[in-house]
Amino acid sequence: MATLLSAEQTKQNPSAPVEIEVPASTSWPLVLAFGSTLMFAGLLTSASVSVLGVVLALAGCVGWFREVFPHEHEETVPVLFEEHRITTERRVVERVPVAPDLVRAWLPLETYPVSAGIKGGLAGGVAMAVLACAYGLLKAGSIWYPINLLAATVYAQSLRLESIQLNSFHADSFAIALGLHGIGSIFVGLLYGAMLPMFARRPIMLGGLIAPILWSGLLYSIMQLLNPLLASRISWVWFMASQIAFGVVAGIVVVRQERVATRENLPFAVRAGVDAPGIMSPREGGEKRP
């Protein structure tokens, strides 16, 4: 057994010892562990196995304690000096060209404006409403059926409607359902507008499939608390189809909007108080540095 020291450490400390003392190796912990195992194994096999385990555990404890108390057992090992040399075959430092024309890059470099999220949310809301009304026509023969069910989320009066009344038009329920659907669609559209620039590949896959499936799973677990009436009458196949239609349409509308540069691409006079990169001086090869 020996201890390695680098040549640099030796030069910094010329009086470094050639031998050092370290705690002596011992096998008593293994004896203690084996004895403890036999103690519990005897509960399933035989009492004699537990007795043997107790004896070994006590012997391991006594032997391990005597290695430490009253004086710690140590052994002397020689110190071997080793010289570490760091070498590389590369002649230049490789850099990742994220944004060569910018001093500092915040990703994404471009994003969608707020109007893109609002447009996408409203368009997706229309597609979702069309499928929901189609479900109402096929299920109950009335487009007002899903509207009254949606209003029951926050409107107690809709919870008292009978099955026949759910198929009729109610101005208060329609207004509440329209407000809920519109506000929810706009907020989700804004979320899509903020998230889609972060996914360079197949953003519609995120907005049209992954997000609706996750959202539907979350609603499935809490729907009984949010809207007991809707939970008892909802068709989850149609619900997921409506969510996917919303995600696909909203995603397509958002990605077709023109992107705008993020704050880092604003003129220096505007972002000087935020970024403050300092005086820029040219390097060799046309690069710039702060």
Write up what this structure looks like:
The chain is mainly alpha-helical. 55% of the residues lie in helices and 9% in strands. The chain has eleven helices and seven strands. The chain has helices spanning 7-12, 28-41, 47-68, 114-140, 144-151, 156-159, 171-195, 203-226, 228-233, 236-255, 268-271, and strands at 3-6, 19-23, 74-82, 110-111, 260-261, 281-282, 288-289. The strands form three sheets. The protein has a three-stranded mixed β-sheet. It has a two-stranded antiparallel ribbon with strand order 4-5. Residues 268-290 have low confidence and may be disordered.
Brief account:
With 290 residues, the protein is mainly α.
List keywords for this structure.
290 residues, mainly alpha, 3-stranded mixed beta sheet, two-stranded antiparallel ribbon, 55% helix, 9% strand
